[in-house]
Amino acid sequence: MAWFKKTRKPIAAPAKEKPSRVPEGLWVKCPDCAQAIYNKDLAANMHVCPKCAHHFRIGAAERLRLLFDGEWTEYDRDLVSTDPLRFTDTKPYKTRLKAGIEATGMKDAVIVASGTIDGIETMVAAMEYSFIGGSMGVVVGEKITRAIERGIDRGTPVIIVCCSGGARMMEGARSLMQMAKISGALARLDRARLPYIAVLTDPTTGGVTASFAMLGDLNLAEPKAQIGFAGPRVIEQTIRQKLPEGFQRSEFLLEKGMLDLVVDRRELKAVIASALRFMGARAQPAPVAPAVAEPAPEPAPQV
Ligand SMILES: [Zn+2]
Question: How far, in Å, from the CA of 301 to the mean position of ligand 1?
Answer without folding.
Answer: 64
